[in-house]
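Extended Data, panel c. Modelled sequence:
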Amino acid sequence: MNTSLFTTRNLLIAIAAASFILVAASSTVVAVKNNNRISMGVQSMGTSLSGMTKEDAQRFFEKKAKQHIGEKKIPLRYGEQEWQIAPEEINLQPKIEEAVENAYAVGRGKGPLQNMAEQLRCAIVGKNIDFTAEYDTEALANKLNSVAHAINAQPQNASVQIQPNGSIKKIPCKIGKQLDTASIANDMEPKLKAMQLPHEIVLQPTEIPPFLLDEDIASINSILASYTTTFYPGFRGDNIILASSRLDNVLVKSGASFSFNTAVGERTAAAGYKNAPVIIDGNIEDGIGGGVCQVSSTLYNAILLAGLTPTARTPHYYPSSYCPPGLDATVVDNLIDFQFKNQYPHNIYLCAHASSNAITIYVLGTKSDLNGCDISLHTEGTALQPSIYRLYSKNRTVIQKEFLHTDTYSSH
């Protein structure tokens, strides 16, 4: 037998035996030292818990909780406004008992050999115990919602108002604001659970631009034209008032087209319209939204007097009682529309004012777009077959006569 191999094998056996004895001895020492106390190597929040009893660990975590939470409050700031959330308002509670049990459980609860191995490993490489907190997520959401209620604002369109003396007043737009409370709550969650209360949360609500901006009405400086028709109170009058409200504060940009049906929407009971007389195939019957054609006809006259270009217009079967023959414009949901185009270099703006028995539609715009002209309407022919002309005058002299259309009505 090779003496060298024998010697080497015996040496390895001796080293292994010594290592086993050393590990066993170390494990025994560690186990004895850890008896009824937190294992060697266990730590939390940068502090060693080794050798502490459960009572010691309880006091340690209570002290840490007081240091991290105590009387502190979470400030939220938006501009000059500030709100504070106190920990008790969201029931922020440190999980002290859980941390104590987790620390004490290291190296315990398994078989003897497994416990000894875990305790030895912990003594060598260490073991960190997370100390966390829990809170009422619904209470936090309610607090954030109350803050959002003070910040949130709907956007407001720029608008134009007609003053009693006939002048116009511009109302600036307002940017809307919307606070994303769910995102703020998500950002706060890990900090609250770690008891790292934020020093300050700067709120940044999303800005919501309005549909009409100040620059949209910047060039509007006068009333280009207006037209008024009257009606009797009742369901028909209610429909007129409702439809005209859809034409109030409407901007038509330069080069854009306007659709009455699109602006007013479908005339349905769900939209608030009522049954009133309408003309269907030459017969007068009750129908939902009866009277709305008076609104489109009033608008038609107003845009003609403002010099705008009608692009889709249909007369009634019979002449209308509320405007001269040839100056009406019928509309039907999804079938007959009244449309016009703003051919001017500047935007125009519609205002509609309705009382209990009259509706007036104003066309506002830039006075220079009329080139100093006064516009009027002229009718030739008969009531059943009128031809309509638009007259452009300067200094009471007609400088242009524009033919618009000839209508043919039924007499029965």
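The radius of gyration is 42 Å. This feature is highlighted in the accompanying rendering.
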